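Homework help board

Subject: predicted structure for assignment chain

Our instructor gave us this sequence and asked us to write out the predicted structure in token form, then describe one feature. I got the tokens but I'm not sure how to describe them. Can anyone check?
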Amino acid sequence: MNEPCLLALDGGNSKTDVLLVAEDGTVITRARAGAFVPHIVGAPAAVASLAGAVTEVLASVPGGRASVVAGYLANADLPEEEEAIAEAIAAHGWADHVVVGNDTLAMLRAGTDAATAVAVVCGAGINCVGRAPGRADVRYPALGRITGDWGGGFGIGKEVLWHATRAEDGRGPATELAALVARHFERDTAVGVATGMHLGTVDRDRLHEVVPLLFQAVDAGDAIAEAIARQQADEISLLVTTTLTRLDLGDEPVDVVLGGGMLTSRHPALLGPVIATIATAAPRASVQIVDAEPVLGSALLGLDHLDALTGRAGDVAERRRNLRVSLATRQEARV
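My token output:
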């Protein structure tokens, strides 16, 4: 009988990591596919785009099949979307069991083993999840401004361009962001960058590249940049404090996990106000910034499901250790 193994997927807006993981957390092999965008191409097409990478890693397993597929994926924001993606994965026959969830759950699991925790991801987009024993999980639709969300790399990019172009045409105050954006995208003006994105001569998917420019302007004392960074910090803080309130966790010990590219930058203009707000709202909170590969959380959650199927309980600390070592080693081999 073949040893149980896990196929772990972490899909994002730019790439998808695919791991084949042994029961002890050792990564057997890994591959990478492109962006996972079911909200644009539909669940069947998005899953089909992973087939090459999945087939590559499953070649290491006799029979080419895993025990469990655990996919914790960006753009799986609603229960209906999770169900559609799970059905599309099951149709490929990659494993006996399929579990699908939002990538925010993977970030939370990557950051803590605690049963009581809140996680905020602020990368390309922004999202939050919270959990506590005996209470319903707190989730957010995270569909952008239409569901009350503000920020993340693409949202910040639009905000920076808004201010930069208004500064150039006289509708807004001067800001160093205009020159920084123009220079970065090799255009004469920020308006030229915006019109290039409209016409397709500048790739709109590069919008997140504006985030480091924002922090550069903050460091130079630009008032507009400082205001944008503070607004993003306020939004992150609001997600945390609202989730703590909904879970009634203000006076309880709680792990707060912060992840995603904007937060792992550790820029003080963003991180300082967030940590200060959490300390006031939840004095017993422990804040952790997670810069591990997000697929670590997908793998840990998948191994939890594997335990439930096999009736065995693996050593959580050993698995986390093995995953970290394997991921670091195999990442070095890929570079």
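Reply (TA_rk): Your tokens look well-formed. For the description, you could write something like this. The mean pLDDT is 93. That's the kind of observation they're looking for.
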